[in-house]
Amino acid sequence: MIARTSLVLFVATMTACSAAEDQPAPHMQQASPVNTEPSPTTQNTDTLTEDIRAGEKLYASRCGACHSVDANRIGPMHRGVYGRIAGSVAEYNYSDALAQSNIVWNEQTLDQWLTNPQDFIPGQKMGYRLTKETDRRAIIALLKTLTPTDATP
Ligand code: HEC
Q1: What is the domain partition of the chain in residue ranges?
Q2: How far is the CA of 64 from the centre of ligand 1 (A)?
Q3: Category of 130 on φ-ψ map: left (φ > 0), alpha (ψ -120 to 50) or beta
């Protein structure tokens, strides 16, 4: 009787082990990436990553002739542009129109600006437009990642 119970337990244990061995992969796959965004966004993380990658390429080809991230060139430097007041980079000589516009760069204002700067802020001096909506979305996703560093107050 005792021997028989042990055998049953033994078999039961073996079965449980092999069953468990078959399972770990699906279990691990269930661990989903933690969403560190403070507020919910309409895009999922994969789309956002794709947008940022596309934005990097577009930035180099479309904006790089006049802008760079950390230096003023023909246009002002872009680090920290998202969330900052338009026309506020020190040492950059903005048009009066942009300097006095009092707008803050967010998704909506950047989209309007890139669509047609002259329509958005008449008298500004950026002679460039980004007509494709998907291009603007990608560039804006990239600009959002250019957060100010400690070295750039
Ligand atoms: C032909 C040169 C040129 C190109 C190309 C260009 N820009 Fe500009 N950009 C400027 C100039 C000049 C200004 C300053 C405008 C003013 O003072 O009225 C400016 C200003 C800006 C500003 C306002 C920044 C601030 O500090 O207020 C943003 C944002 C911007 N550009 C984004 C872009 C993006 C994104 C691209 C690429 C899609 C781009 N620009 C392409 C010349 C350019």
Answers
A1: 45-145
A2: 10
A3: beta
As a whole number of angstroms, the distance between CA 82 and CA 99 comes to 16
pLDDT computed for residue 149 by the predictor: 79
CA distance 64 to 60: 5
Asked if residue 137 has its Cβ within 6 Å of ligand 1, the reply is: no
- d(C-alpha 148, C-alpha 78), whole Å: 9
- pLDDT over 50 at 9, yes or no: no
Q: What is the CATH number of domain 45-145?
A: 1.10.760.10
CB of 86 shorter than 6 A to ligand 1: yes
Supply the pLDDT for residue 114.
98
Contact between residue 121 and residue 100 where contact means Cβ atoms under 8 Å apart: no
Judge if the beta carbon of residue 74 lies within 6 A of ligand 1.
yes
